[in-house]
Design brief:
The protein is α/β, with parallel strands linked by helices and 229 residues long. The chain has 2 domains: 119 residues, Rossmann fold, CATH 3.40.50.2300; 95 residues, Winged helix-like DNA-binding domain superfamily/Winged helix DNA-binding domain (Arc Repressor Mutant, subunit A). It is built from 8 helices and 12 strands. The strands form 3 sheets. It has a 5-stranded parallel beta sheet with strand order 2-1-3-4-5, sandwiched between helices. The longest helix is centred in the N-terminal third of the chain and has 13 residues. It is elongated, with a radius of gyration of 20 Å.
Length: 229
């Protein structure tokens, strides 16, 4: 069994690596986020353990990068370690794609048990997120292309993130607050119309070829990606 350990604190990293090797694991050790992300994207592991606070890309950034590229063989289970163990931080880590979360300080016995539990999980299908499709709308996440009814959509980065989030929640009513938090990473601001502006632009691009409406406005609630058919 092979594990990637991303930890910049030398004492902690050496201690965990020694214990894992004594348990029979092959341990690849990265001491910063840049090296860790490179290994995670280019090597195959049974489990990835990453600290949250790292030089270079931090643990949250690494998680989001990996989960955005699941089709590129990185559906590996991830255990996040952090001294930031309050509820909001844990929720942020889990929503970014962590499979488990362990606050420092911790006992090695608990760490080992959590790693073993993750290693026992069945691997996710490699091509799970290669593309997002809803009726005639398609996003290819590897080639970074989007189309409707075979017509290429020229999307700006924010429009891409908006359509991707809506495709991951098809036909669900998504409130403006949800879209602000998930697409723009903003907190709720009742005075901004940024969501409405970008939804309007995305809607025009989705219907530019004469296709029927794809985004439904739910008055007083938000929007839903709900093309006919």
């Amino acid at each position: 069994m092979r594990i990637l350990l991303i930890e910049d604190d030398r004492t902690t990293a050496d201690y965990l690596a020694k214990g894992l090797r004594e348990d029979g694991w092959v341990v690849d050790l990265a001491r910063d986020g840049k090296e860790g992300l490179f290994l995670a994207l280019n090597e195959s592991f049974d489990v990835i353990v990453t600290d949250r606070m790292l030089p270079g890309p931090d643990g949250i950034t690494i998680l989001r990068a990996l989960r955005a590229l699941r089709a590129a063989k990185v559906a590996t289970p991830v255990l996040m370690l952090t001294a930031l163990s309050d509820v909001d931080r844990r929720v942020e880590g889990l929503e970014a794609g962590a499979d488990d979360y362990l606050g420092k300080p911790f006992a090695f016995a608990e760490f080992r048990a959590r790693v073993r539990a993750l290693a026992r999980r069945p691997a996710a299908p490699a091509a799970e997120d290669t593309a997002l499709v809803l009726d005639d709308i398609r996003m290819d996440l590897l080639r970074r292309t989007a189309s409707r009814a075979g017509r290429t959509l020229d999307l700006h980065p924010t429009e891409w993130r908006l359509l991707e989030y809506m495709l991951r929640h098809p036909r669900e009513v998504l409130t403006r607050t949800m879209l602000l938090e998930k697409v723009w990473d903003f907190s709720f601001d009742p005075t901004t119309n940024v969501v409405d502006v970008h939804v309007s632009r995305l809607r025009r691009k989705l219907e530019a070829g004469g296709e029927p409406p794809a985004i439904r406005t739910v008055r007083g609630a938000g929007y839903a990606l709900d093309p006919p058919g």
